[in-house]
Amino acid sequence: MTILMYDLVGKDTSRPFSPHCWKTTMALAHKGLDYERIPTRFLDVPVVEDGASKTIPVIRDGETVVSDSFSIALYLEKTYPDRPSLFGGPGGEAMARFVERWTQTTIHPYVSIVAVVDINALQDDDNARYFRSSRESNFKKTLEDVTAGREAGLAMFRTSLTPLRSMFSYQPFIGGEAPLFADYIVFGAFQWARIVSSYPLLEQGDPVFDWFERCLNLHEGLGREVAAA
Ligand SMILES: N[C@@H](CCC(=O)N[C@@H](CS)C(=O)NCC(=O)O)C(=O)O
Question: Ligand 1: which atom is nearest the Cα of residue 53?
């Protein structure tokens, strides 16, 4: 049965851009499951599956509706144990949570600073109004003032990736010789940046850049189906 996946888009429904939705897309592909992406704008999120969640991704698998990218990965792992594993066992599940928290607290805040103006520009008028007012109330600044800080933060952001960069001298993926959900968590953040903004977060020659390219090649180049901004 085809799994429905509510996927965040702006005006252009062929350019899903959410980091969390990309984690789920990659997890579904990793498991080799049939899925259909349902393009969903910010203002549609509250009515997805009768208000199942305040955020997407949300999936429907038959009678089961699951929200939150990490919970969805755990659900897929439990429901489809004969498909390739997303975690490599309980220890891998626990460590993926660390990777999720690290990504959320280290990479996401800087990508937000880089990209909020670009993300706003991808929305239609109603969604842009919603996005601007919700994000400006979180940041307590205009979107333009938020993004004005991106140059000043770039060197420190790249330095903050040192643990990840250093790990790639031992192994090609966070999961080891092959990717696991932990890779898709970090991938989602860089894919979000790649799709919404042309700002060069990573330099060519950086092992993190090379790993991201390897991730873009996975599952028959799934990540490359959406061109870079
Ligand atoms: N912890 C959630 C976070 C999901 C999330 O924040 N989704 C954003 C899109 S990237 C969303 O749906 N936002 C709705 C809104 O801002 O109104 C997950 O991992 O799925």
Answer: 12
